[in-house]
Amino acid sequence: MLKAIQYNNKYIGLVDKKMRQGITQFANKSWRKSYDLLHFTNKNQDGKNNSEANLFTAYAKLYCAAQLEKSTAEQDAYVLLTYTNFEFWPYLEEHNFPRYARRFACHFLAYLKNDEGSYTEALDFVDEALSINSPIDDLDDIPLYEQKISILLIMKNMESAYFSIQKLLKVDAENETFITIINTEDYKIFLTVHNLENLLKGKENETAKEALDRYTKFLNLNFKDTIWKTEDYLPYYFRKVKLAELEEIEQRLDFKFPSSYRDFVLKNGLFKLGRWNDYESSLLKPLEINTLHNELEKQWNPSFVELSKEDLEATKDLICFSYGDESLQSVWYYCFDKRCLNPESGEMTVYAFNQDEWNFTALETDTIKGFDEHIVSLVNEKVDDFLQ
User: Are 132 and 88 contacting, i.e. CB atoms less than 8 angstroms apart?
Assistant: First the structure.
């Protein structure tokens, strides 16, 4: 409510006397008087579109109708959706209140649909409300997750309910209602039968393919009955690899691929996370695999020569085999580090190169983690991010 008043104060000069009286009554919590006084207008005195004032009116009328339990509340909620039906920009402060207002309308409609027994529609509205977020918003997800979990339990969708409970507990670890649910004997039996807890961390000595399959199952369970599309996040295998291609690279770079990587790409091919992404954890094509030294020389020359002699030599022992995150900001390349080779297994540590942190110190030998461990760690990080 306070956000609405602050938002409307910017545009109070655009409205007439009756509207100003309605705004005053709204601030005074006189819901009935405010509802009757507030109205929509097409143009202000300057002939400009008065959409900002109308957005406040739509929000305030729904808020008043909800307080009064008016029969018009559902219609008012849909009107508010029409006034907030545009693309939101995360860092644009002008979109802060419209985003908040649309979220409020979706949350309200979810309650109505839930009361009607229209659970699928209710779930769609909850998911849309949860999808509306921004770094500049301070919005409370707890009531939405409580509502979503209640709906999922009614629908007997225990898998999705379980993961939603995990998300809620990340935000509100003391939520007594749902702590009680997960501690019931029936719920524990359900988890054991479906082995859901293993989807979060995986089994011991998990391979890369097993981790990616676990991530696929995790996403499919979480996106079930939601508006989200799994193909935006699922592992997408986009190219086969031949043994001759790997042998050519090994000869060119005087380097032996770890057996875990070699076995994975020969059997499964190359993958990335999200079909429509360009770089998200995308394994490099054979012709793109190179030393970090050569890649830096191409991308940063002549500033590249400012590296110390030791760092310059270190980059020759780092073999780029995968892109990092989609923006290439947190991680640009994942590299096999030839300096951290386990002579018995042939595995070597995966080095994450961040273009803002030029530190090429070799990792200690007791921290060696190969390709399988790298993918497992990547999947666990994605699962944890999703839950948060």
Answer: yes
Q: What's the pLDDT tens digit per position in 180-193? A: 887 888 777 777 77
The token duo for 11 is: 């545009």
Question: Helix, strand, coil: what percent of the chain each, to 5?
Answer: 60, 10, 30
CA 196 → CA 6, 166, 191, 192, 211, distances in Å?
45, 11, 6, 7, 14
Q: Could you give the angle at which helices 142-154 and 119-131 cross, rounded to 10 degrees?
A: 150
DSSP string, 185-201: HHHHHHHHHHTTTHHHH
Q: At 40, which CATH number?
A: 1.25.40
Among the three residues 88, 105, 139, which one is the final residue of a domain in this structure?
A: 139
Per residue in 151-191, pLDDT (tens digit) is 998 988 887 888 788 778 777 778 887 788 878 887 777 77
Domain count for the chain, please give it. Answer: 2
Helix (H) or strand (E) holding 340: strand 333-341
Cα–Cα distance measured from residue 62 to residue 283, given in angstroms and rounded to the nearest whole number = 50
Structure tokens at 306: 């400012």
Would the pTM count as exceeding 0.70? no
Report DSSP state, residue 100. Answer: H
What is the rounded CA–CA span in Å between residue 322 and residue 286? 11
16 and 126 inside one domain = yes
The tokens of 337 are what?
A: 């580090």
Sign of CA dihedral 240, 245, 250, 253: negative
Range of the domain at 124: 2-139
